């Protein structure tokens, strides 16, 4: 319903016509622009409070009231309905004087597809097709960690083939690369039964729901049965899965398993904004964590902001939890829920943990803003790397190593160089593994690190401030042994980065470091690792094609791997390179190198 309200009219009589029921009110100005949306347990009392004050608590509220010309209201059954409706209307219309929730995004889900031999994947789109969707999750990283864990434990298909019983029996499919590299058990050709696959899916459902205990019990039973039948290799495979689950579970904060399914909310606020942290707790373990930021508009009280954020988050993730742990009494907003404002015990510990997360988020934002104002972007990131990885010097020169082999053939390695936080591609180097027989990542890493820094030392070139090794403790230890041989340990900082959970390993430190996944320092290390991997893979593909092996270009002085790679990317074969004009070659590798290549082919033709 809409009421016309001019300041010359009898406002009191208009307000007296408002119902004394719960609802949502909307204020408009004379141009019919929506100014503000609010909720009320009693519409008459709440709206009248704006016009009954001689002295306004806030200058902002006085400005709002002076602009009000129209009023629209909607009656609902309960205050909690009013809160939900208010939340939805604010997000839809975003009025000028309402708080701004800085977290308007679509949350990811984990989907177990409704199909024979179901796929398990992340998605931001929920389709009513009979599939089972878990979430939504407030953190995309949490989804990534869960899916990585699932892929370590179970071999699931990723293809979109219609694996019906009829199609499999008719032999319509062939095994793909995923089967050959051990990521899938090939149900498409009948090498895995529907029963075995369904059993894995059931365990995955338990893992996603946080019921790790049931999965561990099942795996231990399977392990003991295999051991009793002297099938020790299979028993060890189950043991490895149990170890993976245990490591994953150890990273979760366990408070009290009796705290079965609750949500924790805390708030930290100042004059301009508020930060609300959310924790999801299942069987005492924190399985989700998220912080949202709210920008104030009318000096709102903490209880209003907290209620708004709780409604927004619960509504968007379709929460089914029946208990909330909060610092302020929200019973009037959620009469159907159990609201706990703890004073002692494990629930208070959870609330304090949530509060620390909210404070940490706020401080991190203040630090980021201050750093952006005082430092150039490149210098700022390097200072973050120096602080996070406890380096003595600012890492202006960083080098990263990666090994590459394809199905056990042609092992190669790559070294990429970053200066001032950016790639220095002219300094990139490829390495053919010369001393190691067969495929041995540790020995290969030892070889290339030794060769790289032996040359820098012999040529009296500057050493990097930081070395990054693509790999965990094993690769890091191999690289360290080379630094020991060269008597460089302690002169260069060195770390390893493991791919699966982005763990950072330090020399002689058994416990890895987990850097904030949104931090600039980790992103720089990831860029180094990804660039080294890309550079190594490109070199390896050229070698496997046979083009570089048979190429005589390597014999030309001044023509290195980088130039050869550019030529083959452009011309595809030795024949095309040989037939290319000087201008075409110059466009790829420069005039000087192009002239050397042309002279080389002319001499070979004599």
Explain this structure:
With 606 residues, the protein is of the alpha+beta class. It contains 20 helices and 20 strands. The strands form four sheets. Strands 14, 15, 16, 17, 18, 19 and 20 form a seven-stranded mixed β-sheet that branches. The radius of gyration is 32 Å and the shape is globular. Mean pLDDT is 81; it is low at 2-8.
Helix fraction, binned, reads: 40-55%
Whole-number radius of gyration? 32 Å
Q: How many beta-strand runs?
A: 20
Alpha-beta content class:
alpha+beta
CATH fold-level label of the largest domain? Nucleotidyltransferase, domain 5
Looking at CATH, the homologous superfamily of the largest domain is: UvrC, RNAse H endonuclease domain
Distance between the termini: 96 Å
CATH class of the largest domain: Alpha Beta
Query: What characterizes the major β-sheet?
Result: 7 strands, mixed
Percent of sequence in beta strands: 15-25%
Poorly predicted tracts of residues: 2-8
CATH architecture of the largest domain: 2-Layer Sandwich
DSSP summary: helix tally: 20
In round numbers, the mean pLDDT is 81
Q: Indicate how many domains the architecture comprises.
A: 5
From the spread of the alpha carbons, the general shape counts as globular
Write the layout of secondary structure elements.
Blueprint: E1 2-4, H1 11-16, E2 23-28, E3 34-40, H2 43-51, H3 59-67, E4 70-75, H4 79-93, E5 100-101, E6 109-112, E7 120-123, E8 132-134, H5 140-153, H6 165-169, H7 177-180, H8 194-208, H9 212-228, H10 232-250, E9 261-269, E10 273-282, E11 285-295, H11 302-316, E12 323-325, E13 338-340, H12 345-374, H13 377-388, E14 397-406, E15 409-419, E16 422-423, E17 429-432, H14 441-458, E18 466-470, H15 473-485, E19 493-498, E20 503-505, H16 520-544, H17 561-571, H18 574-579, H19 582-589, H20 591-605
Parallel strand pairs: 9-12, 12-13, 14-18, 18-19
Antiparallel strand pairs: 1-4, 2-3, 2-4, 5-11, 6-7, 6-8, 9-10, 10-11, 14-15, 15-16, 15-17, 19-20
Helix pairs in contact: 4-11, 9-10, 13-16, 14-15, 19-20
């Amino acid at each position: 319903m809409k009421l016309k309200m001019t300041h010359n009219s009898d406002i009191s009589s208009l307000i007296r016509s408002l119902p004394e029921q719960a609802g949502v009110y909307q204020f408009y100005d004379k141009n019919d622009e929506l100014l503000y949306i609010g909720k009320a347990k009693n519409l008459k009392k709440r709206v009248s409070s704006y016009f009954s004050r001689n002295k306004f608590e806030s200058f902002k509220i006085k400005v709002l009231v002076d602009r009000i010309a129209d009023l629209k209201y909607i009656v609902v059954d309960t205050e909690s309905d009013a809160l939900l409706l208010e939340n939805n209307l604010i997000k839809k219309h975003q009025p000028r004087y309402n708080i701004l929730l800085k977290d308007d995004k679509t949350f990811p889900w984990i989907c177990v597809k409704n199909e024979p031999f179901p796929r398990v994947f992340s998605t931001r789109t929920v389709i009513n097709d009979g599939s089972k969707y878990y979430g939504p999750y407030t953190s995309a990283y949490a989804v990534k960690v869960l899916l990585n864990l699932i892929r370590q434990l179970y071999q699931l298909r990723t293809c979109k083939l219609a694996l019906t019983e009829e199609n499999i029996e008719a032999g319509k499919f062939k095994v793909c690369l995923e089967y050959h590299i051990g990521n899938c058990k090939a149900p498409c050709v009948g090498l895995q039964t529907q029963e075995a696959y369904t059993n894995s899916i059931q365990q995955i459902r338990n893992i996603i729901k946080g019921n790790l205990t049931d999965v561990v019990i099942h795996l231990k039973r399977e392990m003991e049965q295999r051991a009793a039948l002297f099938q020790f290799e299979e028993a060890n495979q189950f043991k490895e899965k149990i170890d993976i689950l245990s490591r994953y579970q150890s990273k979760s904060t366990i408070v009290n398993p009796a705290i079965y399914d609750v949500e924790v909310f805390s708030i930290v606020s100042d004059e301009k904004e508020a930060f609300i942290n959310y924790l999801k707790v299942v069987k005492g373990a924190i399985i989700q964590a998220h912080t949202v930021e709210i920008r104030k508009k009318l000096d709102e009280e903490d209880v209003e902001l907290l209620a708004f954020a709780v409604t927004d988050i619960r509504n968007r993730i379709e929460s089914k939890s029946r208990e909330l742990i909060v610092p302020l009494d929200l019973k009037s907003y959620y009469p159907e829920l159990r609201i706990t404002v703890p004073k002692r015990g494990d629930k208070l510990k959870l609330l304090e943990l949530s509060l620390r997360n909210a404070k940490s988020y706020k401080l991190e934002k203040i630090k980021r803003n201050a750093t952006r104002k005082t430092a150039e972007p490149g210098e700022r990131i390097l200072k973050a790397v120096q602080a996070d990885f406890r380096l003595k010097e600012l890492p202006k020169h960083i080098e990263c190593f990666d090994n590459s082999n394809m199905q056990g053939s042609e092992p190669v390695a790559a070294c990429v160089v970053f200066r001032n936080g950016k790639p220095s591609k002219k300094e990139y180097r490829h390495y053919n593994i010369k001393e190691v027989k067969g495929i041995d990542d540790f020995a290969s890493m030892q070889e290339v690190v030794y060769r790289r820094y032996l040359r820098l030392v012999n040529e009296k070139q500057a050493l990097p401030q930081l070395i990054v090794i693509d790999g965990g403790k094993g690769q890091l230890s191999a690289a360290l042994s080379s630094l020991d041989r060269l008597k460089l340990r302690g002169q260069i900082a060195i770390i390893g980065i493991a791919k699966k959970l982005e763990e950072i390993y330090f020399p002689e430190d058994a416990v890895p470091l987990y850097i904030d996944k949104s931090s600039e320092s980790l992103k720089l290390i990831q860029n180094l690792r990804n660039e080294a991997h890309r550079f190594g893979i490109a070199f390896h593909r050229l070698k496997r094609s046979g083009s570089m092996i048979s190429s005589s270009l390597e014999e030309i002085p001044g023509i290195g791997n980088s130039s050869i790679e550019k030529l083959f990317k452009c011309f595809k074969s030795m024949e095309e390179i040989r037939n290319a004009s000087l201008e075409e070659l110059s466009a790829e590798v420069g005039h000087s190198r192009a002239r050397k290549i042309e002279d080389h082919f002319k001499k070979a033709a004599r």
